[in-house]
Amino acid sequence: MTAPAQVCAAVSQDELDRIARDMDLRFTVVDNQPGKCPDGAGGCFLSEIELRLPERLPQRFASEDLPIYFSLVARLQRVDSDLFEADLVNGDLHVLRPKRGARLEGGRTYRIKLWSAGHFYSAYYPMPNFYLAPAGLGARVIAATRPVVDPETGLETLPFVGPMTNEAKLATGSADDATTWRTPERAYALYARNGALAKPDVAILPTPATVKRLQGAPLDLRGGVRLRLAGADRGLLQTALNRLVASGVGGLDRGPELRIDVAPGAGLAAESYRIAATTAGIRIRAADAAGAGHALRSLAQQVAFEEGRLRPIEIADAPRLPFRGLHVDVARNFHSKAEILLLLEQMANYKLNRLHLHLGDDEGWRLEIKTLPELAQVGGFRCHDPSETRCLQPQLGAGPDGNGPVNGYYSQADYLEILGAATVRGIEVIPSFDMPGHSRAAIRSMEARYRRLSAAGDRAGAELYRLVEPTDKTRYRSIQNYDDNTLNVCLDSTYRFVDTVVGELATLHRAAGVPLKTYHIGADETAGAWSESPACKTLMASSGQEPKQLGAMFIEKVAASLAAKDIEVAGWSDGLGHTDAKKMPRAVQSNIWGSLFGGGVAEAHDHANRGWRTVISVPNVTYLDSPYAPDPMERGYDWPSRDSDTFKAFAFMPENLAANASVMQDLQSRGTRIDDKTPLRAGRRIEGLQGQIWSETVRSDDQVEYMLFPRLIALAERAWHKGDWEPAYTPGAAYAFGDGKVNQAALLQDWRRFASRMGVHQAFLDDAGIDYRLAPPGGRIEAGMLHANSEFPGTPIEYREGGGAWRSYTGPVAVKDAVELRTRSPNGRRASRAVPLGQ
């Protein structure tokens, strides 16, 4: 629903500014198991807004002057307050206002209890930037609700969110939920169990297939190498060569010979390579430029580790999976071109070869389409404009002014630069605008276009790209609480819109010299849409279809249109699964996002058995915007997972999905069983693995890096290299937690090798300017002695007593006062968040 009409404010703009500056507001999660939920709903939580008005209010102040807009990413069920009420505007945007006749007093504190569906397990689930927007005045953010960056950690904090310290009330959402918070004591036990080896001999990640040390003196590369290149375009290797020079090689025109031979059909598979480094020089052999680039980046890692003096070594390597991807959502919250370029370089370093760029969703459209300028000019921004003529509604705590890093879009020149940077790194860009659901940004932008052209008298032009039908009386709510986010799949103008967008994308790719090979349509649907659409009723009357079949019809039509343009269709597995395989093109990419414990295994095998390119994107482990650990101070959406740490990503088995039940617990931290009820047929396989970062809770570029690294490196390890502890796929096999079918000792030994290398790679990430997550230390106190450990070996640990100065921890030390612990980056520039021990 939309907010009721407001009378003009009684206060002036200056007075409103002072109220927004001086009032205090606190949001506290009170209980994730509050007992009986409103209306008998299953699963809810209780929160409280504490509102303190300034001591001195303007004499003309009236209750109408205090509409507070805020984002709540949960369905609000009930408001308990004698003086306040709240309404849903749309999506997660709500408005809290005094009830009619309420008299508010300066200096008073008011408490409003909110009952909402689901659970808030993190202090980063509440969204910032509550704002005041009385009619007739400019909207103003309540200053107390702005996010603040901690200068020690560089991490965003939300000072207006109350502390979450009661584990009994806040850690679980049901009686059978076994989740516990990762306290320092529990982290200590975990890190001690996982362990780590001493400094490694080889530091290359992902782990090469085979490595052999050779005899001979080290090869001193600090003075440079003489490059000899045969069979490859140097332009396609230049960024990898730059990486080699940055690793400590003094140049490319003098010194020992570096010979690179690229010869297709020379007995090497696609992307594979061989390195032989002897006292005489270095030779690289590869079947293609991609393999040569991988070789150079592996070499660069080892050269940097050995500080420019490379001991003789022989490496043979090849990828496990042909598709190794990263999905980056820039639609919910925007992320800069500079960040995408930085990520492309790290993707190349860790041998990822697909960037799935999510450019359009409900909350934003992030690419300039010149035929349809409103898409970026309106859909690229969120602000307080109820008409949505200038911008979209300020969802996800965006604030009212349309500024800030969550807003913006890529110009076509920006996109061409991204394509160019990806191409020279051997990475394919897969653009995506979600449809037919999750399309609110497109819909509202095209409505703004409709109003502009209609006002100019061009009614025919206005209708040309309209995506909704004004006479459609269908009522629905998407999972994200929108009632207007789904394209009308029965309108010709919808397909004209899709063709126009894809046409401009294809033109941009051609201009960059790389054809648009794959387009991801999303394929998300919205239950209940289209049932009352006149256009759909006419279509259904002639075709005999039902509303629930229309989504599949849309996907099939768009897929056929893409295939006619020689573009492969990609989509999320649930929407694709509703289609008739006979009506789909032969080439289809399906991103499997069903939960491992909820049918995802059968879905993955079913889609692979259809002959589709099947890319594992299951939320349990590949959704990298989920919290690293079950801790209220870790950010991220936790519906996919509450503990997606680096070890969990490392232990994932993408080609034997059911086997993950042996080592992975479900969302409630319970062991369970997975049966392979839909086996892979002979000759079918899993084609790829993709990590996802969705950006609902990720509001800045440094938060992107925190959520991705280091666990993306572990996922890249599993995409490139198969662990020798992974059991071979057996059709129809069943696995259960702790059943011993996965060799736990071998898994831990492999992890220790990986962790020792990650201790080295943290310094590499420092050098690249990556704000990766520093896991807080584990710790315990025994007999007055502090013992501490870290996730990766060599990570500096610091401690302090009683709030005093930080000291380096080098081994067990006597302590007497309250202790806090933190880790520090190898370069000393950043610290993890501090964790209290034994409090």
TrEMBL record:
Pfam families the UniProt entry points to: CHB_HEX (PF03173), CHB_HEX_C (PF03174), Glyco_hydro_20 (PF00728), Glyco_hydro_20b (PF02838)
GO biological process: carbohydrate metabolic process; glycosaminoglycan metabolic process
Keyword Nucleus: no
Occurrences of domain Chitobiase/beta-hexosaminidases N-terminal (ranges): 21-186
Group of enzyme by EC: hydrolase
EC number: 3.2.1.52
List of catalytic residues: E525
Cellular component, GO annotation: membrane
SUPFAM superfamilies the UniProt entry points to: (Trans)glycosidases (SSF51445), beta-N-acetylhexosaminidase-like domain (SSF55545), Carbohydrate-binding domain (SSF49384), E set domains (SSF81296)
InterPro entries: Beta_hexosaminidase_sua/sub, CBM2/CBM3_carb-bd_dom_sf, CBM2_carb-bd_dom_sf, CHB/HEX_N_dom, CHB_C_dom, GH, Glyco_hydro_20_cat, Hex-like_dom2
Molecular function as annotated in GO: beta-N-acetylhexosaminidase activity; polysaccharide binding
Keywords carried by this UniProt record: Glycosidase, Hydrolase
The UniProt record lists the keyword Secreted: no
Similarity section: Belongs to the glycosyl hydrolase 20 family.
Protein name: beta-N-acetylhexosaminidase
Organism field: Allosphingosinicella deserti
